[in-house]
Amino acid sequence: MDEDGLPIVGSGIDLTKVPAIQQKRTVAFLNQFVVHTVQFLNRFSTVCEEKLSALSLRIQQIETTLNILDAKLSSIPGLEDVKLEVSSANVNSVKNGPVAQAAADQQTAGSPQSGQNNTQEEGVQKTEVVTENVTTVAKDPRYARYLKMVQV
């Protein structure tokens, strides 16, 4: 034993003469560990759930604001004919990320003139696809009552 009354554990100790740890004490330590771990996990899951619900609420508010903004923009006469012109580099970087941009750069490096023509044609095709697939609020039947009320 050392000065604190703790047994000195080393290579000179015969473990067959050391008394066994009490089972009740081991079970108590194990139970305490399990209880504290479960309490921690419960608190953690509660905090995560609260944050996810707050984030979901914020997303719903943003979607509602976006729908209102879309309705206001669609109520302005003369904006139905306006088309958005997007360059092919912006379309690639936004739609497909940097990998597609690198692939487009490699194509243009291989054949500069044909690559530029291809990317311009792709840009025109993508803007046409974007304008065809867009459903405006003015055409959406869910907002028909609201738009009729705005006109009145």
UniProtKB/TrEMBL annotation:
| One GO BP annotation of this record | actin filament polymerization
Enumerate the residue ranges of region (Disordered): 97-127
> Which UniProt key words apply to this protein?
Coiled coil
- Annotated Gene Ontology cellular component terms: WASH complex
Q: Where is the composition biased (Polar residues)?
A: 104-122
Please indicate which superkingdom the organism of origin belongs to: Eukaryota
Into which family does the record put it?
A: Belongs to the CCDC53 family.
Name it.
Answer: WASH complex subunit 3
